[in-house]
């Protein structure tokens, strides 16, 4: 990251983070402290749901044709496996000097340098 990146893009307001649902924990901390008999080893880790809405939820705003029925969310197993991997960062294996990973890194650095020089030309 270059030193000019903060100058180019002002930080966006992330107000939607406060309203977004989080599935990081299964219960509230108050409930966990209320039952002293349960030890941390007794709890089984629960699998976090893949989607952000349960099956049967009406997804408003997705039907853009007139007269189209409401779009309803399906269970997670009804969707293909590759769908849940779309937002994960692409992993490039490090294959040594002169390999694909180095080529990608150099291309990224070159693009950042070109953007910085173009930005400085406009000032």
UniProtKB/TrEMBL annotation:
Pfam families: Ribosomal_L37. Keywords: Mitochondrion, Ribonucleoprotein, Ribosomal protein, Transit peptide. It is found in: Mitochondrion. Residues 27-56 are annotated as: Disordered. InterPro entries: Ribosomal_mL54 (IPR013870). GO terms for molecular function: structural constituent of ribosome. Residues 27-40 have a biased composition (Low complexity). It comes from the Eukaryota. Belongs to the mitochondrion-specific ribosomal protein mL54 family. This is Large ribosomal subunit protein mL54. It comes from Daedalea quercina L-15889. The lineage of its organism: Eukaryota, Fungi, Dikarya, Basidiomycota, Agaricomycotina.
């Amino acid at each position: 990251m270059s030193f000019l990146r903060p100058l180019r893009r002002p930080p966006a307001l992330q107000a939607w983070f406060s309203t977004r649902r989080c599935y990081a924990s299964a219960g509230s901390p108050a409930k966990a402290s209320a039952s002293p008999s349960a030890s941390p080893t007794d709890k089984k880790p629960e699998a976090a749901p893949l989607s952000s809405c349960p099956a049967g939820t009406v997804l408003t705003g997705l039907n853009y044709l007139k007269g189209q029925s409401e779009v309803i969310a399906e269970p997670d197993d009804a969707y293909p496996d590759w769908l849940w991997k779309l937002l994960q960062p692409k992993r490039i294996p490090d294959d040594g000097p002169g390999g694909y990973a180095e080529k990608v890194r150099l291309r990224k650095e070159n693009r950042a340098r070109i953007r910085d020089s173009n930005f400085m030309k406009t000032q």
